[in-house]
Amino acid sequence: MNRIWVVGMGPGSEEQMTLQAREALADCDVIVGYTVYVELLKKLWPDKEYRTTPMRQEAERCRMAFEEAKDGRKVAMVCSGDAGVYGMAGLMLELAKEYPDCSLEIVPGVTAALAGGALLGAPLGHDFAVISLSDLLTPWEKIEKRLRLAAQADLSICIYNPSSRKRAGYLKRACDILLESIEEERVCGLAVMIGREGEYSEVLTLRELRERQADMFTTVFIGNSQTRKIGGRMVAPRGYRI
Amino acid sequence: MNRIWVVGMGPGSEEQMTLQAREALADCDVIVGYTVYVELLKKLWPDKEYRTTPMRQEAERCRMAFEEAKDGRKVAMVCSGDAGVYGMAGLMLELAKEYPDCSLEIVPGVTAALAGGALLGAPLGHDFAVISLSDLLTPWEKIEKRLRLAAQADLSICIYNPSSRKRAGYLKRACDILLESIEEERVCGLAVMIGREGEYSEVLTLRELRERQADMFTTVFIGNSQTRKIGGRMVAPRGYRI
Fold first, then answer.
1. Between chains, do B150 and A150 touch, taking CB under 8 Å as contact?
2. Residue B229 DSSP SS3
3. pLDDT tens digits along A80-96
4. Do A83 and B122 touch (CB under 8 A)?
C-alpha cells in the first residue's frame, strides 16, 4: 500500500504544527499543496520536492498526490489549518476509490477558528458554528440561511473566507443578515494573518465590523449574547460562577 | 509580569500536541489541570509539579494557577483539546482582573472535533456547529433549541459531552430532536478515546446512534444532507466537481 498523509499544517508557523504533522512533512518525499501554503513550507524544508496547483484546481491537485504516491513516493498533501475543515481530506477520500493501491492517513491541525480564537481570547468558549462565506461551491441562499439560523440559535459564529477580490461586499451582506436578530453592539472580533508576519487581531462591535474590508487572510468572530470584552479580549463565557 | 500559559494539549497523545504546547509544558514549573488530563501528562513529564482539582471546581483550579504564578513560578494551566473550546481560557481571562500582576498567553490545540474528525474521515469538510449536551451550566431548553436550528440550517453537528452517568439519556433525547428534521438514515459517526489507548471510531446511521450509550470520552458527529459513507469513512463533501 502506498500511503498518503493529508496534513493539517495549522495556521502557518512551525510552532503551531502538531508533532505528527511536522513529522509527516519532514519524512515525505513530495509535498503537494496550494501555492500560498507551500511557500510557507519551503522556508522550513527548502530541499523537498514541491508540487502545486493554484486555487480552483483542487481535484487536479489531489490527483497529482495520488499519481506521485502510485510511483512509490512518500507524499504529503498539505492543507492550511486542519486537514478536514474546508480542507482536502474530503476530496482525497472521494477520489481514493480510483486509486485502490493508495491508503490515506488524515493528520488534524489547528484550524483558524482555534488559532484566531486564542489570539482574540476565548471567543469559542461555548457552542459555536463555523460558516464559510465562499459561494464558489455553495449557493449564497444556503449561506444566508445558515447565518440566520446560527444567530437565532445564539451560537457564537466563526466566519471563514469573509471576502475576496470577487466577493468584496460579502462580509457586509453577512452582517446585515446577522443584524436582523443581533444587536449592533454585539462583541465581535477579527484575526488577520494568524501565525504569520503581520499577525493582527481586534475586538469590535458588529456595527463596526459591517464597515470593515476583510480579505482571504481574515477570520471573523461573532459573539453570542453572553460574549463580553474583558481586558481588551473577546470572551464567550461557559457560565462558571466566580 | 508573571506569565501563565493556558495550553490546549490536544486529545491526549504527545504527537497531537503542537510544538508550542509541548514547549510550554516542558518549560513550566507547575502544571495545573483537571485530574484525568494531568494523569496523561505525568507519563510524559514525571518530574514536574502538578496541581489538580476535580470536575466542578474549575474556578478554584484557575485561582490555583494564578496563586502559583504570583509566587513567581512558571505555570501552565492545561486543557484537553483546545484551550478555548469548552476550555479554561475564558474563565482564566474572566479572573485575570483580580491578578493584575499576571498575564495570560493562550496556546490553541487540536480539539476533539478535529481529531475525531480525522479519525472518521472528513465529517467537518463544510459548515458545522459544535454543541455540548452538558446542562450543568446551560439550560437544556437552550441546548435543544441550538440542536433544532443547527439541523434546520443543514450544518454538520459535532456533539461534545454527549452523556455521563448523571445524564444517561441525553444523547437519545438529542437524537429525537434531530429526527424532527433529519431522516433516520443520515450518516453519523462516533469517535471514542481519541489519541488514547482504546481509540475507536464508527460510522453509523442516526437511527443506530439513537440506541447507543455514549460516555464522556465520546465525540459524536451528525452529517449534513450531503454527508456520505465512502470506503467506510464519513465525508461531508465541500462540493468540488470530480
1. yes
2. strand
3. 999 999 999 999 999 99
4. yes
**CA A192 to CA A199: how far, in whole Å?**
6
Is the backbone of residue A179 left (phi > 0), alpha (psi -120 to 50) or beta? alpha
Do residues A108 and B16 lie in contact, with contact meaning Cβ atoms separated by under 8 Å?
A: yes
Candidate from A95, A145, A155 with C-beta closest to B242: A95
Record the pTM.
0.97
Distance between A94 CA and the closest CA of chain B, angstroms: 7
Tens digits of per-residue pLDDT, B160-210?
999 877 788 999 999 999 999 999 999 999 999 999 999 999 999 999 999
Question: Model confidence over B223-232: pLDDT tens digits?
Answer: 999 999 999 9
Let me know how long chain A is.
242
Question: A235 vs B94: CB contact, 8 Å cut-off?
Answer: yes
- Angle in degrees, CA B220, A96, B191, rounded to 5: 15
Label each residue of B109-126 as H, E or C: CCCHHHHHHHHHEECCCC
**Choosing among B5, B18, B101, B128, which should be mutated to test the A contact, i.e. which has the most A CBs within 10 A?**
B18
Question: Are A18 and B23 within 8 A, CB to CB?
Answer: no
Please give the C-alpha separations between residue A102 and each of A61, A162, B232, B242, in angstroms, as whole numbers.
16, 35, 15, 18
Question: Quick one: how far is CA B241 from the chain centroid?
Answer: 33
ipTM, two decimals, is 0.97
Do residues B109 and A138 make contact, with C-beta atoms less than 8 angstroms apart? Answer: no
> What distance in Å separates residue B125's CA from the closest CA in chain A?
5
- Per-residue pLDDT, averaged over B31-40, amounts to 91
